[in-house]
Amino acid sequence: MLKLMEFAYWTGVKLHIVHVSHPRTIDLIKQFKAQGVKVTCETCYPYLLLDINALDEFGPKAKNNPPLRHPEEVAGLWQHLEAGDIELISSDHAPWGAEHKDPGKDNIFKASSGMPGVEIMTPLMFDSTVAKGTMTPVQFAKVMSQHPAEVFGIPGKGKIAIGFDADFAVIDPEATWVIDENQFRSHSKISPFHGKEVKGKVIQTIVRGTTVYDGEQVTVEPGFGSFVPGSAYKGATVGGKRGL
């Protein structure tokens, strides 16, 4: 990471650091930002909501890469998030089936790293921030939606404004419910958050003005969505070929 930021310093390119799991990383990023480096970063929801003790409690369900950190380091990440030092939160969705996790019950090194997140990240983070009064709804929307669109230059996304796509996630802030891994639509039916009660439930998802999720079921056919490349993607080299 230090080499990447040093390269960014000398070349002037934009740099985005993913999977930040330790507050020391943010400290270093802030130092390079102060020197004019155009560097942004993200953390993943497990690094905010779990710590190293989760491995003892949940076993391979909680195996992640980079690994989970100690409680005091998790607290440091939260301090940086609340100070605005972390631009966005991602899921790092890893849809491993039981066949990839179960071998780790006897030997943790045989389990694949990662956990599913796209279905539960928003309510989990809402429950841990807005519902507890540590973040306003506007601040929450910025790290979950606006900043990702801005960092990657995704047109028409991230804001409620004229000229932007009518994309919304409607959250009932008072609804409480229990996460059930067996109800996941993902291939992965494994989560250390199984059985956790959270406050805040997505009751409607709207994409380009069309309701795609009504709080219980997906209401459109597969293929309704479309890939929207950001400016960071255009012209990039992917697999030896130029990006779209």
From TrEMBL:
It comes from the Bacteria. Residues 22-212 form the Amidohydrolase-related domain. GO terms for cellular component: cytoplasm. GO terms for biological process: purine nucleobase catabolic process. Coiled coil: none annotated. The keyword Transport does not apply. One of its GO terms (molecular function) is allantoinase activity. InterPro entries: Amidohydro-rel (IPR006680), DHOase/Allantoinase_Hydrolase (IPR050138), Metal-dep_hydrolase_composite (IPR011059), Metal_Hydrolase (IPR032466). Keywords: Hydrolase. The keyword Hydrolase applies. This is Amidohydrolase family protein. It comes from Brevibacillus centrosporus.
